[in-house]
Amino acid sequence: xxxxxxxxxxxxxxxxxxxxxALLTFGIVVVYDASVVYAHTVFGGKYHFLFLQTGWVALGxxxxxxxxFLDYHLxxxxxxxxxxxxxxxxxxxxVPGIGVKVYGAxxxxxxxAFTLQASEVMKLAFILYLASWLSADxxxxxxxxxxxxxxxxxxxxxxxxIAALIVAEPDFGAALIITGIGVSIYFTSGAPLRxxxxxxxxxxxxxxxxxxxxxxxxxxxETFLNPSMSDPQTTGYHINQIKIAxxxxxxxxxxxxxxxxxxxxxxEVCADSIFAVVGEELGFVGASAVVLLFLFxxxxxxxxxxxxxxxxxxxxxxxxxxxxxxxxxxxLSAMVGLIPLTGVTLPLVSCGGSSMLVxxxxxxxxxxxxxxxxxxx
Length: 377
What we know:
Largest sheet: 3 strands, antiparallel
Low-confidence stretches: 1-9, 141-147
Distance between the termini: 7 Å
Helix content: 55-70%
Order of helices and strands: EHHHEEEHHHHHHHHHHE
Number of domains: 1
Number of helices: 13
Radius of gyration: 21 Å
Strand order of the largest sheet: 2-3-4
Strand content: 5-15%
């Protein structure tokens, strides 16, 4: 195996990039396939979401090109303003005339003709800030946080504030993902294992507090725990339609374009529930192939982190890869009934402009680490 290492290298991790391109191409196809009925019914044209998704992927590529060729060592200088700006966005979602309320949730900010999902921006901003902070050398870190104990308190306070703002939207799924990202970066930076053990019950207690503090989250949990007791036409409708779609796919699927659940039976058909259509049309074999492609991308991301030549690059790579891995795990687990439905989309595949734009920006940061800070093998 040949290994090349150069801080001035222009080499990218090609296998990782090809994996991302494969997922994006598959996503465009399946978004069109899943949304064709809904798009024709609501917007009068079956290509509505195809054009939207293609446009967002193109914009995402432009953003990824910028972050790929931007030296990631600049992030410690700009990560704090980016984080503060993202917190401001999380607050603005509640401001009338700026925040946009959809399905009872205040998750979007209106910027001219566009709407931006604030929690998606926060995912990347949080990674940039946390990696920049925790990658500082020992002397600088002591100046910033004073002690290891204070470091844990500062980290916990930051995560709690951000998670609370997102839960208030409400968006428990995004809060869960950001908490997971934070834990991944914090303990990768060398925090003692005993702090991790201490954090588990605290996170669990806070999670239950947030769940039972909301009637709709409590209802989702109760539906998950007692599916036979839920009303199949109300609280249990969504998960039942997902199960029908996945069960109908069998081993080899109904065939591409042959989904029946996309005919206005399956809610959020091209967003949260898109994997159900994949399973219905491609079956267990096709769905497993998609999961394997995701696993390949995650494996390459952690390999970039392992081969990074400095701590900043390593933590950035861990944060972005953990982000994708946790979000994929949450979405797929909800689809197969391992956890309650959370409203979390499938990265790089589901339709959604904010998610695509920010996710591809994060992919560019990871490619920047492989280009300038690591080894290509």
